[in-house]
Amino acid sequence: MMARRPLIAGNWKMNGLKADGEALAKALAAKLKASPPAVDMLVCPPATLVDRVAQAVAGSALAVGGQDCHAEKSGAHTGDVAAVMLKDLGASHVIVGHSERRADHGETSADVRAKAAAAHAAGLVAIICLGETEAERDGGRTLAVVESQFAESLPEGASPDNTVIAYEPVWAIGTGRTPTLAEVAEVHRTIRDLAAKALGKDAAGRLRILYGGSMKPSNAKELLALEDVDGGLIGGASLKVEDFWAIAQSA
Ligand SMILES: O=C(CO)COP(=O)(O)O
């Protein structure tokens, strides 16, 4: 029996105004109600829409998450959002350490670890992102990069119940390119092995490890069929109901 229920998560990034965000979430919630798939589904709208989307899908099986949180609970941090604030709006998850935040905002793995700890303290599941750049892949450093990001980003107290790992090769995000299936399998197996060392074998066996980076209906089935791929973190294709739903159906 499959021990890990797949998680199909949509990262809307900086897309969506009130009307279209609500319509997208409602359409997904309706599909989930009509024909529940054998996966968990999550959408992560921009912070401005978390409240509205959470209210729109309340009572449905569609979970809602944030895309980032601050490491502190409150304070003088203009423009930032605390994990507890996302929780207050009805979020159950938050993405931390996305490569766009690591690149655009200079977030380090130490920052990511503090954010994940804040998410846990607020009662949120932290989706911790990691992945190599193209130069790192070309230089043969993929596994070393993933290993150090994993070691440095995982907080004390992490468990399969409060943490999900997302492997997102930076060069595959929004480019239409993906690693080969063998390359994805190798990285996911490595992450599972790292998790076994950090959390113990049983916990590692329950930990969900998502793949992200140009996942779409045409390649989802083969990616999601890999033994250590337990779902997807989907950007562009999560903005279209039919595409996101098709991906969920192929898990
Ligand atoms: O960054 C991603 C999800 O967090 C992946 O984005 P794309 O699916 O658009 O490549």
From TrEMBL:
GO BP term, example: glyceraldehyde-3-phosphate biosynthetic process
EC annotation from Swiss-Prot or TrEMBL: 5.3.1.1
GO cellular component, one term: cytosol
Pathway(s) this gene product operates in, as recorded in its UniProt entry: Carbohydrate degradation; glycolysis; D-glyceraldehyde 3-phosphate from glycerone phosphate: step 1/1; Carbohydrate biosynthesis; gluconeogenesis; Carbohydrate metabolism; erythritol degradation
Intracellular or extracellular location(s): Cytoplasm
PROSITE patterns noted in UniProt: TIM_1, TIM_2
UniProt-listed InterPro entries: Aldolase_TIM, TIM_sf, TrioseP_Isoase_bac/euk, Triosephosphate_isomerase, Triosephosphate_isomerase_AS
Job description of the protein: Involved in the gluconeogenesis. Catalyzes stereospecifically the conversion of dihydroxyacetone phosphate (DHAP) to D-glyceraldehyde-3-phosphate (G3P).
Subunit structure: Homodimer.
Official protein name in the record: Triosephosphate isomerase
